[in-house]
UniProtKB/TrEMBL annotation:
Family: Belongs to the DegT/DnrJ/EryC1 family.
Pfam families: DegT_DnrJ_EryC1 (PF01041)
Annotated protein name in UniProt: Aminotransferase DegT
Key words of the record: Aminotransferase, Pyridoxal phosphate, Transferase
Enzyme active site: 196
Gene3D superfamilies per the UniProt record, alphabetical: Aspartate Aminotransferase, domain 1 (3.90.1150.10), Type I PLP-dependent aspartate aminotransferase-like (Major domain) (3.40.640.10)
GO MF term (any one): transaminase activity
Record carries keyword Transmembrane: no
N6-(pyridoxal phosphate)lysine found at: 196
Biological process according to GO: polysaccharide biosynthetic process
Spans traversing the lipid bilayer: none
Length: 405
């Protein structure tokens, strides 16, 4: 019998998956150019301006305002939309914690909605259950690069009058019904942190089609200044959240690589789904037919422990990792996060028993959903085949063991 790597057998692979980020002579040249120009800040040079225009166009948005990271991009969007103390903002429970901490940062209360178990995107029915007169905004997260159901959410926004802020930190290049995400809602935000599909190590951007929201976001990120105003003319309260020219120089080069990389991930994700279709008890998440471009920041699949000899999720993940596959367990739902529960109690008097459950998010975390990073989709067909081989090997050994019992 083939021994699992976790038990000291030979792993399916020892070679790493392709390294991330990808860079070359272009990035080197661009960085040296900024260095030698002496124009290192966004107010001195033109790289940030160029990048925010190009990136906004890349996402079918009219305006882009670069900021220091994706977390502060969310905070700027919330402030631009006028969200503050006394307001509630509905966010999915199954997301990175920054989606909710940005809400806390502006003094508003995050309210957690459940996700659709088919796509893991925020469930519009759960959003509607949580809407009340204090609901000021909803932040759909395009988890893994799969757009949330923007049709349903924009219809709810029209009915209840809340602002939709797309957290598109994982969705560079993603499109919903032929239109790239970010400015389909009232505002959208992206991250350029190291792991993201377009990166400069850190960075973020707010995008919108609304001139007034863009002007507010610009002012908030530039210490309350107004375009064309005097240096010490601060018309509103803002902060210095500007990106540097070094980041923008790298991002311009990364953007040149983005379409090809997006395409490669899409081709590889389809191929991987084809391979996994042959494995009993392994199922890629569904892709909504209205998604015309999936950005594949993550590849999520569901596994059925019963098809793997009853193996629990943490053992399953450790087995995959030992075989050389960079599998990860993913998020712990935020409505169960202790720090978040404490903040809700201390800041808003919300008791634990008054936080509604999110059963699909809980089940995804506890039992079924497994993540692969985008870099696993950047390699060759052999790289993809090794993922299927590792799953088949674990399945064969685990079911043999179960039969032996
Ligand atoms: C990465 C990420 C953020 C935060 O972006 P940073 O640039 O790391 O601050 C927010 N939301 C989601 C869904 C993310 O994946």
């Amino acid at each position: 019998m083939n021994r699992l790597a976790i038990d000291g057998g030979d792993p399916i692979r020892t070679e790493p998956f392709p390294a991330w980020p990808v860079f070359g002579a272009e990035e080197e040249r661009a960085l040296i150019e900024v260095l030698r120009s002496g124009k290192w800040g966004a107010l001195d040079g033109s790289k940030v301006k160029q990048f925010q225009e190009r990136f906004a166009a890349f996402q079918d948005a009219k305006h882009g305002i670069c900021v220091v990271n994706g977390t502060l991009a969310l905070e700027v969007a919330l402030r631009a939309a006028g969200v503050g103390p006394g307001d509630e903002v509905i966010v999915p429970s199954y997301t990175f914690i920054a989606t909710a901490t940005s809400v806390l940062a502006v003094g508003a209360r995050p309210v957690f909605a459940d996700v659709d178990p088919q796509t893991m995107q925020i469930d519009p029915a759960s959003v509607e259950e949580r809407v009340n007169s204090r609901t000021r905004a909803v932040i759909p997260v395009h988890l893994a690069g799969h757009p949330a159901d923007l049709d349903a959410l924009m219809a709810l926004a029209g009915r209840y009058g809340f602002t939709v802020i797309e957290d598109a930190a994982q969705a560079h290049g993603a499109a919903w019904k032929g239109r790239r995400v970010g400015a389909i809602g009232h505002l959208g935000t992206f991250s350029f942190q190291s792991s993201k599909n377009i990166t400069a190590g850190e960075g973020g951007i707010v995008v919108t089609n609304d001139d007034a929201l863009a002007a507010r976001a610009w002012s908030i990120h530039n210490v309350g200044r107004v375009p064309g105003g005097l240096w010490y003319q601060h018309e509103s309260i803002g902060w210095n959240l500007r990106m540097t020219e070094f980041q923008a120089a790298v991002l311009l080069c990364q953007l040149d690589r983005a379409e090809e990389q997006l395409h490669r991930r899409q081709v590889n994700a389809a191929a991987l789904s084809g391979l996994l279709a042959h494995i009993d008890g392994v199922e890629p998440l569904s892709v909504d037919s209205r998604v015309t471009s999936h950005a594949w920041h993550l590849y999520l699949f569901r596994y059925d422990p019963a098809a793997f000899g009853g193996m629990d999720k943490s053992t399953f993940i450790r087995c995959l990792q030992a075989e050389g596959i960079p599998a990860a367990p993913g998020y712990i739902p935020l409505h169960r996060n202790r720090a978040m529960r404490q903040a809700l109690w201390e800041q808003f008097g919300v008791k634990e028993e008054d936080i509604p459950p999110c059963p699909s998010a809980e089940r995804a975390c506890d039992e079924t959903v497994v993540w692969l990073p985008q870099s696993a989709l950047m390699g060759t067909s052999q790289d993809l085949a090794s993922i299927a081989q590792a799953l088949e090997k674990i399945q064969a050994v685990a079911s043999q063991r179960q039969q032996a019992k």
